[in-house]
Write a structure and sequence with these properties.
294 residues, alpha/beta, 7-stranded parallel sheet, 14 helices, 10 strands, 48% helix
């Protein structure tokens, strides 16, 4: 489809990792973007405003604040963060977004879920998203569901504490040779833009997103080769990591499950849609280059 000057997309969680990437990509693709955030004065919100996004304040936990934001939107990109809101909060927010999107007649809702399609994994942040998905389906929404796997940003992003989590506790619980399915947020954002531009192809689809399959041991070798040094590791007992609250308990449940149950997916779905998606080596090379010049 061809975007018109009057069409806009609402991006929820616009200042988060996924939301930022999606907002930028949609702007680059010619869409108007209404970026939803709880703090319109934050540096992240102001950076998006400088790129041309319309910054609007609202709270996904309060559905009444969403009606005016969603009204008139062609589409909504929906993502919630359970590590900020808690699991019940994530479910409530996801349901609120879906309910209001249905109420105002949004033409296309793209929901960023996570994890495999199987149920009863015991992983809290996977199970919560299935609850949201099930609710969305009861509303008969024009819906596309994305299932991004592990984000490559987990290897480098400081807010994820990679020295403790990805490089230390994760391989200890999952096994350093267990295959992990990876994708980066920019490639996810490109898929989102393609889906909004071609609804007939994507409506009703559930898309697993992975562009590379690498164990932590393989990632460590690639990191050493690209960065010229080993990734930092900070020894931390598993029990202490789990005491860090929901984050620790959720992630350790996830990594234990991945160590027990082989995933059955591939990179085919993503590369069929986006042939230029990046494997880990190329992504790390670009990451290194962008940070050395910034």
């Amino acid at each position: 489809m061809t975007t018109s000057p009057n069409q806009f997309i609402v991006v929820t969680g616009a200042t988060g990792l996924q939301g930022r990437a999606v907002t930028r990509q949609l702007l680059n693709s010619g869409w108007r973007v209404r970026a939803l955030t709880r703090n319109g004065n934050s540096p992240g919100a102001q950076a998006l405003a400088a790129l041309g996004a319309e910054i609007v304040q609202g709270d996904m936990a309060q559905s009444n604040t969403l009606i005016s934001v969603f009204d008139g939107a062609y589409g909504v990109f929906s993502v919630q963060n359970p590590y900020l809101s808690g699991l019940n909060g994530e479910i409530d927010q996801g349901k609120n977004v879906a309910r209001v999107a249905k109420q105002v007649g949004v033409k296309h809702l793209i929901y960023s879920s996570a994890g495999p399609t199987v149920r009863d994994t015991g992983v809290p942040s996977w199970e919560s998203k299935l609850v949201v998905e099930d609710y969305m389906k009861t509303l008969d929404l024009p819906l596309t569901i994305l299932r991004p796997m592990a984000f490559m940003e987990l290897l480098t992003e400081k807010k994820f504490f990679p020295a403790v989590s990805t490089w230390q506790v994760m391989p200890k619980l999952m096994g350093s040779s267990t295959p992990v399915y990876w994708v980066n947020t920019q490639d996810l954002a490109i898929i989102v833009a393609k889906a909004f531009a071609d609804p007939h192809r994507f409506l009703g689809e559930v898309l697993p997103l992975a562009s590379d399959i690498r164990s932590i041991a393989e990632c460590r070798t690639i990191y050493q080769q690209v960065m010229g040094k080993s990734p930092a590791r900070f020894p931390l007992p598993v029990w202490l990591f789990e005491r860090m609250g929901l984050i620790g308990q959720d992630l350790t449940s996830m990594w234990r499950w991945l160590g027990r149950v082989p995933l059955e997916t591939s990179t085919e779905a993503l590369y069929t849609i986006h042939p230029d998606a990046l494997p880990i080596r190329t992504w790390l090379e670009q990451h290194k280059s962008s940070h050395s010049t910034s």
